[in-house]
Design a protein that fits this description.
rod-shaped; mainly beta; five-stranded antiparallel sheet; Immunoglobulin-like
């Protein structure tokens, strides 16, 4: 009878001579996310690779724990043992907790690393600057500015808000440009504005329903052409009319001067006209005529005028007796 321990020793010797098969498995490691302003990046390492290899790898992220490749993801090709990689994450929302993890993928298998979490809850790095405001016409202005800091973060909305006489918010007039996920330079025009009203403009960036950032304020006041008629005086050989362009407005003044008549109390440039031509200067100007020298017992009506493009602007009507 063979003793049991001899059988055990024989079995040990037999199986000890057999080759032990080592099966390699794919393993991936997820490092902590780095939130640099609103740019979020994360590293991963392919620690080991099975015989099937790795056809794709990267990171996947979501607002739910244990994100999968069906969520947001980055994709790289053909990893080997020790492959170290970095993903920049996109489509992120402000003040929201995200879960991210590394993955590797073959036709038959997806391997995930451990979860890491992060949140973008600081907006001090954002920069909104309204650089310049240019008056383009009697009812139109242009604004240039920049919004920096979006990067991985997607803004819910951005654009320009404006209001008459006071500082605007997104509850006032808004030119919305929608979502934004990159730094941007703005160049926008506004028309149908009223002349000689104080408008205030500023850029805005809406991070979420509770957080909106604003730029500095730019103001616009579009002046109109204004003309006034002053008193005349008579010299020994002529009549001197006085007037003024009180404000030039934004359009070129193609002509200015005085018109007068003793046949009508409402003189226009179709009556007697003294033209001084175009000007780029406001202030008082004088016109003179000798056409009244030999007249008496009449009332002369006169007024200053100026022309911007096709529009004639008159001063008030004055009169004097000869």
């Amino acid at each position: 009878m063979i003793k049991p321990y001899y059988i055990a020793i024989a079995s040990l010797l037999f199986f000890g001579c057999q080759k032990i098969e080592v099966v390699r498995i794919t393993k991936v490691f997820t490092e902590e996310a780095e939130v640099n302003s609103s740019s979020v990046s994360i590293d991963g390492v392919v620690v080991d690779v099975s015989d099937a290899g790795v056809s794709k790898y990267g990171h996947c992220w979501s607002t739910k724990s244990n994100p999968t490749v069906d969520d947001f993801k980055t994709v790289f090709d053909s990893a080997t043992v020790g492959t170290y990689y970095t993903s920049t994450l996109t489509n992120l929302q402000f003040n929201t907790t995200y879960y991210v993890r590394s993955y590797t993928q073959t036709e038959d298998e997806i391997v995930y690393g451990e979860n890491q979490t992060f949140i973008i809850d600081n907006y001090s790095y954002f920069e909104l600057i309204a650089n310049s405001l240019t008056i383009l016409g009697e009812n139109e202005i242009n604004i240039e500015g920049v919004i920096n800091g979006a990067q991985s973060l997607t803004l819910q909305d951005h654009g320009i808000c404006y209001k008459l006489d006071s500082i605007p918010t997104i509850n006032d007039e808004v030119y919305s440009m929608g979502n934004l996920s990159q730094n941007i330079s703005l160049n926008s025009s506004f028309n149908n504005l009223l002349q000689e009203r104080h408008y205030k403009f500023r850029l805005f960036a809406q991070l979420d329903s509770n957080t909106t950032l604003y730029s500095n304020v730019l103001s616009a006041y579009i002046t109109d052409l204004h003309v006034s008629t002053h008193n005349n005086y008579i010299t020994a050989d002529s009549v001197i009319f006085s007037g003024a362009i009180d404000s030039l407005g934004v359009l070129d003044v193609t002509d200015h001067g005085h018109c007068w008549s003793y046949l009508t109390s409402n003189p226009t440039i179709n009556n007697e006209r003294i033209s001084l031509g175009q000007t780029i200067t406001d202030g008082v100007y004088l016109s003179s005529t000798t056409n009244l020298n030999n007249l008496s017992n009449i009332t002369v009506y006169y007024r200053a005028y100026a022309i911007k493009e096709s529009e004639i602007v008159y001063g008030e009507i004055k009169s004097f007796d000869l």
